[in-house]
Structure formats: C-alpha cells, structure tokens
C-alpha cells in the first residue's frame, strides 16, 4: 500500500475520532437537557464524571495530529485538516466542561419549573445551542462550508436569547418573584450556554478554514 493511501486512511481515522468526540459531547448535552427538563437528578449526576473520558479523547486526537505533522509533513488541504483538528478538540472539550458546570448549578439549586417563563426561555436557549453543537461538528467532519456558515450566523439567535434572559432576570428582581440565588444561577447557566454557542462557532470557523484556508475573512493558509 502506498504512503499516500496510508496517509489518507490516517486522515479518515482522524476525522472519525473528532466525530466520536463530538458525539460524546452531544450525548452528554442531550442527557443534561433531558435531565433538566424532566427533573431527573439521577441522570444528571452521571454527567459529573464524564470529563476524564473527554480529556482522554482530546489527548488521543492531539497525539495523532502531532504524529501526522511530524511524520507526514502534510501540505495544503491536508495540513489545514490536521491543524484545525488540533483547535477543534479544545472547543469540544470546553463544551463538555460547560455541561458539567451547568449540571452542578442545577443540582445545587434544586429542580426548576420547566413551565415557568424564565425557565422556558432558558430551555429554548439550550435547544438552540444543541443544534449549533451538532451542526458545527458535522460541518467540520464532512467539510461542509455552507453548513458551517449557517452555524456562524445562528450565533445571533443564542446571543439574542441571552440578552432576553438578562432582561427577564432584571424584571424578576424588580417584581421579586425569584430569589436572588436563583437569579444568579439562571444567569450563570445562560452565560454557559452563550459560551457553548461561541465554541460551536469556533468549530464552524475551523471547518471553513479547513476547506478554504480563511479564518474570519483572513487568508491564513
């Protein structure tokens, strides 16, 4: 088998590893969303100890990328794929961290009324961020520039929901219909969701870079 064929197989393995890590983050996120919507603390508690697996997956992908860079010395599109994968796994790992952060917040504050006005807004924000995670990783693995661009544009939706959440919290403070601790916890959770959206945008931008060499309109490679 020629070195080029072997290298292409390694690149395919790399994409599969990134996809697997993204799926792991997405599954954890889905469980978090279900656990919070249905007040399932037993499910949420299982998500507190998933960080080790995520870090292991990240380290494995980073080691493979460094090996490919040193052994194969890729150029052009192959180089962009390997170098972008090094960046993407950091964002995926941070998404996993934020899932654990939100679970800890939820377990500390107790269950929430999923039919409440603020809670519905928070759950809506969770749904929008969920789609961004899935679409960004898929765009990177598949090399889908159009889908990646949609993720970047969709960030405005999550940002607008975050601003709406801040307004709702200010209104709750004025009307004194939420205690101060819950207001802070909800704002922190909304901030974590905004950060998750930002990480999804980063992944999407690296997907665009992988295909075009452009990063936010600047030609890098």
UniProtKB/TrEMBL annotation:
InterPro entries: PhoU, PhoU-like_sf, PhoU_dom. GO terms for cellular component: cytoplasm. Its main location: cytoplasm. Gene3D superfamilies: Phosphate transport system protein phou homolog 2, domain 2. Pfam families: PhoU. Residues 18-104, 122-207 form the PhoU domain. GO terms for biological process: intracellular phosphate ion homeostasis; negative regulation of phosphate metabolic process; phosphate ion transport. Plays a role in the regulation of phosphate uptake. This is Phosphate-specific transport system accessory protein PhoU. It comes from Simiaoa sunii. The gene is phoU.
